[in-house]
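Example S7 (structure tokens).
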């Protein structure tokens, strides 16, 4: 039987009038020889607020269950705050990106220490479907000292569409198609080149072009990666992502 643990995080105050409170779920036993922990970001849909348990409800845990039970994987599913950040049309774009940065600080300073307390495995993979793929790639490229594997499933990586024409340094440094081509710092580049990166897409995936273009950027920086395009008429949806999860992990 799989261990499924739903946990409410303590409230994290970011400012005097703004707090972040998230839920997460952990799947997996604690084994001394555990090989890999996986941090999975949510897939957000425009018609509702995605929650951390949807990956399980859609069958992702079932696909990975044998490896989880053997102690090869432990999976952490945190909530996202996209309805408060990138998708929040009720606030100025500057506020959207600042809310995203608050969330990123939370992940670094609150959630990752919790993850390391639960699992001391050296390898950490980040992954996500659709816009979750953006979160995985953006976080991995900004923090390559933390992430060893990055798997994007049908991701799209350009956030201009959420900014209504606004742009500042915070937007730039959270938009991989913009900051990566200009990256010259060997501290980052050397770590990117050691990271295992997968860009998964499909011939009927609405994000195929985004993956082809981002693969070209990675090639331009001599960053090894795997652009895996499924040529079986698969679309941007869960049946594809379940097969991807089974293949990549």
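Recovered sequence:
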């Amino acid at each position: 039987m799989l261990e499924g643990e739903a946990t409410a995080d303590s409230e994290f105050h970011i400012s005097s009038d703004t707090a972040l409170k998230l839920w997460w779920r952990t799947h997996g036993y604690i084994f001394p020889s555990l090989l890999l922990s996986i941090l999975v970001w949510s897939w957000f849909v425009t018609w509702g607020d995605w929650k951390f348990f949807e990956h399980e409800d859609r069958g992702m845990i079932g696909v990975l269950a044998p490896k989880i039970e053997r102690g090869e994987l432990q999976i952490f599913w945190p909530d996202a705050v996209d309805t408060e950040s990138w998708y929040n049309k009720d606030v100025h774009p500057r506020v959207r990106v600042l809310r995203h940065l608050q969330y990123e600080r939370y992940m670094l300073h609150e959630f990752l220490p919790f993850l390391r307390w639960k699992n001391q495995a050296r390898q950490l993979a980040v992954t996500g479907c659709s816009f979750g793929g953006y979160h995985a790639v953006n976080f991995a490229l900004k923090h390559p000292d933390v992430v060893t594997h990055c798997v994007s499933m049908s991701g799209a990586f350009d956030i201009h569409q959420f900014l209504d024409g606004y742009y500042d340094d915070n937007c730039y440094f959270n938009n991989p198609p913009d900051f990566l081509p200009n990256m010259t710092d060997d501290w980052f580049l050397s770590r990117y080149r050691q990271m295992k990166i997968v860009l998964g897409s499909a011939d009927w995936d609405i994000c195929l072009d985004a993956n082809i273009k981002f693969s070209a950027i990675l090639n331009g920086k001599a960053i090894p990666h795997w652009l895996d395009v499924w040529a079986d008429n698969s679309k941007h949806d869960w049946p594809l992502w379940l097969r991807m999860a089974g293949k990549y992990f």
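Notes on this example. The chain has one domain: 4-248.
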